[in-house]
Every structure is written in structure tokens, then in C-alpha cells.
């Protein structure tokens, strides 16, 4: 069974929501894209977490693994880039 909402109540609710959107947009600022702000925040948080993770690495092998992960390279490529031997 569906509840019936009058057209008058629906219009009133729509007006309330439109006023709320206008108020929030005014707080955000004119011509500001909220999606861009959120995407920038996410990108900055991702960079922060990568840096934090890199600083928490303790041993040299883990450090190489972390560096390879951050640079999206293999451990072999890191060894080649830094002229490291297999013993390093």
C-alpha cells in the first residue's frame, strides 16, 4: 500500500530542499564545484597516506618494497635504477 502525498506537500518539500541547496551553495561560494573540492581532498589524502606509509618502513628490504610501490616499479627495476646488487 502506497502512502499518498498531496501535491501541495510535495511542492512545499521541494521548495524546502531547493532553499537548503541554495543555502549550502552560498556557504560554499559562487561558481565553486563541490566535486572538484572532494576529488582534490581525496588526491591529497592519498598522497599523505603514501608519504606516511613510506616513513613507517623500517628495514632496507621493506624500504625498497615501499619505494617500488610508490614509484609503481618492480624491485628489480629499483635495483637497476640505483645500481644495487642482489645482496643489497
Overview of the molecule:
The chain is mainly α. It has 2 domains: 7-56, no CATH class; 58-88, no CATH class. 72% of the residues lie in helices and 0% in strands. The model has no long low-confidence stretch (mean pLDDT 81). Keywords: DNA damage, DNA repair. This is Swi5-domain-containing protein.
How would you briefly describe this protein structure?
The chain is mostly helical and 88 residues long. It is built from four helices and no strands.
For the sheet with most strands, the description reads: none
* Low-confidence spans: none
Helix proportion: over 70%
Radius of gyration: 26 Å
Task: Give helix and strand order, one letter per element, not per position.
Answer: HHHH
- Strand-pairing-aware structural class: mainly alpha
Shape: rod-shaped
β-strand amount: under 5%
Number of helices: 4
Number of domains: 2
The count of DSSP E runs of length 2 or more, i.e. the number of strands, is 0
Mean pLDDT: 81
Q: Termini separation (Å)? A: 72 Å
Which descriptors apply to this entry?
mainly alpha; 88 residues; 72% helix; single chain
Architecture blueprint of SSEs:
Elements: H1 7-28, H2 34-55, H3 60-71, H4 75-81
